[in-house]
Specification:
Bound molecules: pyridoxal-5'-phosphate
Radius of gyration: 21 Å
Number of strands: 15
Helix content: 40-55%
Shape: globular
Number of helices: 19
Distance between the termini: 62 Å
Strand content: 15-25%
């Protein structure tokens, strides 16, 4: 039996502990984020350029330099359905690894969508509704984001159309059914519903689709309809900010556990779960405190944006409809290998994360997928929770750090974000257990080739 509070296995908070404000890391940057540029003129874009796509309140949040932004009560009321989420001490995993390290994980899989994504979906649906938008469009890869937005739209009475990457649409029918159950309309992308989709289909009728293509379709749909706006589940500043409820809760929970993090680990696709989890800790680091804290982003070696990409201006989508943003990119023409089952397939990365990586405030590593699934299975057998394949990248990173602690005889405290469960990703586990998954290291030459198609930007 636990005797001291710190001996517990889970660290829970009350509903009153749900954060009342989001943390905006831009307020603590010493130099501003490089501005997004207009794809036509190459000039920095203003709020009016974004107005066809986003409600004004979210555009304001995107560029805000305020450190704290109030969370409206209507959003906190929805958060109450699953927040605060638990923080666990992974005692059984520590034992299985025979490591002196202490491992904690924040579990976002308790949300109705099974991941962290509703934290921003709910906020985005709320602000759109408030500004009288009737319909939202979005893209989804594995379907995590699409299901989060479908739920949020159903809460706030909005229509929702989801462009789902074709290969996932075919391989993950249950995510589609989930989105449809919440009332969303789902089409396989590239689709014949948009000019962007038709263009891709003309060039390659068998295109498996990509997140970049699906973004082009969703953006075009929103830009060409008066009643519709667009919603993105990661990458943008305001999206990352909405996720900071995660890290803000973790800080309180670690206090309860009487623990202080030495290493923070998160998986990284567009950057939102990693940012939400780590940014509230980076505030100290940016202020010159917490110098020893290491913050590690883990990405798949099949889609290594931070570790192999280049820090340049690129399009957010494939067709070239979005603003140009400065980010680590594999090139907007990047199409992830179809045999990659682990998610995290976006060609770029959130500009906020890229700046922190460029300034060496955070670290990044890439891990191969077979070892990633090994880690996920080891975690599931020790702790019981089946990680989302994306989250499994963080688990791999954590197990490697814990084993290093064992070799070096160090008692570090490692905290990670288990950002979702894998109950709707069992086909990936099936492939792994049947020995059908292969590693794929995205070749440097392919990155070089894709970077030839980068848009030209004046220095
Ligand atoms: C969407 C998703 C990701 C990747 O997106 P980020 O913006 O990098 O967080 C990772 N894990 C899960 C469970 C997801 O649903």
């Amino acid at each position: 039996m636990a005797t001291k509070a710190g001996d517990n296995t889970k660290f829970l908070l009350d509903e009153k502990d749900i954060p009342t404000k989001w943390y905006n890391i831009q307020a603590d940057f010493k130099t501003p984020l490089p501005p997004p540029l207009h794809p036509g003129t190459g000039q920095p874009i203003g709020p009016q350029d974004l107005a066809p796509l986003f409600p004004m309140e979210l555009i304001k949040q995107e560029v805000s330099q305020e450190r704290w932004i109030e969370i409206p009560d209507a959003i906190r009321d929805v958060y109450r359905l699953w927040r605060p989420t638990p923080l666990y001490r992974a005692r059984r995993l520590e034992k299985a690894l025979d490591t002196p390290a202490r491992i904690y994980y924040k579990y976002e899989g308790v949300s109705p969508a099974g991941s962290h994504k509703p934290n921003t979906a709910v906020a985005q649906a709320y602000y759109n509704k408030k500004e009288k938008v009737a319909r939202l469009t979005t893209e989804t890869g594995a379907g995590q984001w699409g299901s989060a937005l479908a739920i949020a739209c159903s809460f706030f009475g909005l229509q929702c159309k989801v462009y789902m990457v074709k290969v996932s649409y075919q391989q993950k029918p249950y995510r589609r059914v989930l989105m449809e159950t919440y009332g969303a309309q789902v089409v396989a992308s590239p689709s014949a519903d948009t000019q962007s989709g038709k263009k891709v289909l003309e060039a390659d009728p068998n295109s498996p689709g990509s997140l970049g293509i699906a973004i082009s379709e969703a953006v075009e749909d929103a830009a060409t309809r008066e009643d519709t706006k667009y919603s993105l589940g990661s990458v943008l500043n305001h999206v990352l900010m909405h996720q900071t409820v995660v890290g803000l809760e973790v800080r309180k929970q670690l206090e309860k556990a009487d623990a202080e993090a030495d290493i923070l680990v998160g998986c990284i696709g567009g950057g939102s779960n990693f940012a939400g989890f780590s940014f509230p800790f980076l505030a100290d680091k940016l202020a010159g405190k917490a110098k020893k804290l290491r913050v590690v982003a883990v990405e798949p070696s099949a889609c290594p944006s931070l570790t192999k990409g280049k820090y340049v201006y690129d399009f957010g989508d494939t067709v070239g409809l979005t603003p140009l943003v400065k980010m680590y990119t594999l090139g907007h023409t990047f199409i992830p290998p179809s045999l990659h089952a682990g998610g995290l397939r976006y060609h770029g990365m959130a500009p906020l994360i890229c700046k922190l990586y460029d300034e060496k405030v955070i670290e990044a590593i890439a891990v191969p997928q077979v070892a990633t699934f090994h880690a996920a299975v080891q975690f599931a057998r020790a702790e019981g929770i089946l990680p989302a394949p994306e989250a499994a990248h963080a688990v791999r990173g954590v197990i490697d750090e814990a084993l290093r602690c064992k070799n070096e005889g160090k008692r570090k405290t490692i905290v990670f974000n288990l950002c979702g469960h894998g109950h709707l990703d069992l086909s990936a586990y099936e492939a792994f257990l049947a020995g059908k998954l292969q590693d794929y290291e995205y070749p440097a030459e392919k990155v070089q080739e894709a970077l030839k198609h980068l848009p030209k930007v004046k220095a």
